[in-house]
TrEMBL record:
Family, similarity comment: Belongs to the glycosyltransferase 20 family.
Organism domain of life: Bacteria
The protein's name: Trehalose-6-phosphate synthase
Gene Ontology MF terms in the entry: alpha,alpha-trehalose-phosphate synthase (UDP-forming) activity
GO biological process: trehalose biosynthetic process
């Protein structure tokens, strides 16, 4: 590894790929962080020499930089107040709802906004400290929208890119944010801005036109100081090769058979895999499944649902409310329809190793991906990669994945009757149709994998219209 001030590539994200977890006995353990960003960037960083600047998931002092899995990790400290104000507050109770169609009411507090600015500066300073002269710095996601501008002020020699893992909202929603113009100016500190869908990039450019009076020609936004910044779609993906190999391995295939056996060898296994987040449409999915059982269209234990609901943002009220609703509904469905010893819904509220996730994808006949809004949804791509030809994917129209995965059974999760019909259509479709759909989706993901995504992003960044000022 080169010394810590000389990295040519620096990743800046709210989270490091591992969380530091201090147990009650004071022992420190490193655990893989949740979410699609980490899944994607972990595989990008393997085989590249670079630093990753991020928070280690615990309040308090940060440890010194360390190497984990061949990655040079630079922890950024957050105090307990900053976790509450920058992460839980502004990032996840103000921005997150606005960027996801206001599914829950956003909350705005001036104290949260100040913390967001302070923490964005800290991340930018940490990146500036470990970037070599003329280095490429790749900033990630909605938690760090002010960082590109701060970084440019600190280090005009850098090439700065930013990628948004979540949707970018229509201007009518974005406008609700207090001090909204500063967010746009913060982002325009970058040379290139990447989004999941063309619509997200268009929304950003419209916001610049409407709220900053910026000139926008095609994908190029001209900033107030005359720089040209490109904002375009670069949809994220997965390590398709690696995951397919894992899924085809004998231990994973064996584990998939075992999972079905443990469920009582059902005829139909439906699967949902999500962070326990109100954007994911878990309640709508459970409602549809419950009604299919109550009408007798499906019957337990022949037809079952596995719902993996990964713990997420557990101190936030909206997430606690959702957890209560989901767990109550699972209990009701099992109470009403499951025979002794075999639940109709197997509910798993914890994290699993990659092998177990792959086995679940192999075991499931139909994958239910029903978010109300989702930037991409990597789970959809993981399922079509892992499962054989006889699978079926039910996919919400409100995900980035729906743009690419044309072979999915598309649904509007708000329309419960239509969702039920789509689930049954997917479950009962003839094998040749499933095969055609699954193969086309698998080909799409294989030819647009995470390595291609990262290379496309870095090429776009290198070719961005304005050359950085060299000092
Ligand atoms: P998000 O980024 O909103 O969480 P994505 O679907 O894009 O949603 O990415 C989620 C990632 O986390 C996927 O790689 C998925 O396999 C992984 N994942 C989800 N739940 C679990 C779990 N319980 N254990 C391990 N990995 C999980
Ligand atoms: O992809 C969206 C995202 O918010 C990522 O930024 C994040 O890593 C992931 O989901 C999980 O959320 P959190 O980091 O808040 O646990």
């Amino acid at each position: 590894m080169p010394d810590r001030t000389s990295f040519d590539l620096v990743i800046v994200a709210n989270r490091l790929p591992v969380d530091r977890v201090t147990g009650p006995d004071g022992r420190v353990e490193l655990r893989r962080s949740p979410g699609g960003l980490v899944t994607a960037m972990e595989s990008v960083m393997r085989g590249r020499e670079g630093a990753w600047v991020g928070w280690a998931g615990e309040a308090g002092e940060a440890s010194d930089p360390f190497v984990e899995d061949d990655m040079y990790l630079v922890p950024v400290p957050l105090s307990a107040d900053e976790v509450a104000d920058y992460y839980e507050g502004y990032s996840n109770a103000s921005l997150w709802p606005i960027y996801h169609d206001v599914i829950v009411q956003p909350v705005f507090k001036r104290r949260w906004r100040s913390a967001y600015e302070k923490v964005n500066r800290r991340f930018a300073e940490a990146a500036a400290d470990c970037a070599a002269r003329g280095a490429t710095v790749w900033v990630h996601d909605y938690q760090l929208q002010l960082a590109p501008h701060i970084l440019r002020e600190l280090r005009p020699d850098l090439r700065i890119g930013w990628f948004n893992h979540i949707p970018f909202p229509p201007v009518e929603l974005f406008m609700q944010l207090p001090r909204r113009e500063e967010l746009l100016r913060g982002l325009l500190g970058a040379d290139f801005l990447g989004f999941q869908r063309r619509t997200d990039a268009e929304n950003f450019r419209s916001a610049c036109r409407r709220l900053l009076g910026a000139t926008v020609k095609g994908e190029i936004v001209t900033t107030e100081d005359g720089r040209a910044v490109r904002a375009a779609a670069v949809p994220i993906s997965i390590d398709a090769d690696g995951l397919q190999q894992l899924a085809r391995s004998e231990p994973v295939q064996e584990r998939a058979r075992e999972i079905r056996h443990e469920l009582g060898d059902p005829d139909l296994v439906l699967l949902g895999v999500d962070r326990l987040d109100y954007t994911k449409g878990i309640r709508h999915r459970l409602k549809a499944f419950g009604e299919l059982l109550s009408e007798g269209t499906l019957t337990a234990p022949g037809d079952v649902l596995i719902q993996v609901a990964t713990p997420s943002r557990e101190r936030l009220e909206a997430y606690q409310t959702l957890r209560g609703q989901v767990e109550r509904t699972v209990g009701q469905i099992n109470g009403d329809y499951a025979p002794i010893g075999t639940p109709a819904v197997s509910y798993l509220h914890r994290s699993f190793p990659r092998e177990e996730m792959a086995a679940l994808f192999v075991a499931a006949d139909v994958m239910l991906v029903t978010p109300l809004r989702d930037g991409m949804n990597l789970v959809a791509k993981e399922y079509v990669t892992c499962h054989g030809d006889d699978g079926a994917l039910v996919l919400s129209e409100f995900t980035g994945a729906a743009v690419e995965l044309q072979g999915a059974y598309r649904c509007n999760p708000h329309d419960i009757d239509a969702l039920k019909t789509t689930i049954m259509e997917a479950a009962r479709s003839p094998l040749d149709e499933r095969r055609r759909r699954m193969r086309s989706m698998r080909r799409q993901v294989a030819s647009h994998d995470v390595a291609r995504w990262a290379q496309d992003f870095l090429d776009d960044l290198a070719a961005a219209p304005d050359k950085p000022e060299r000092r």
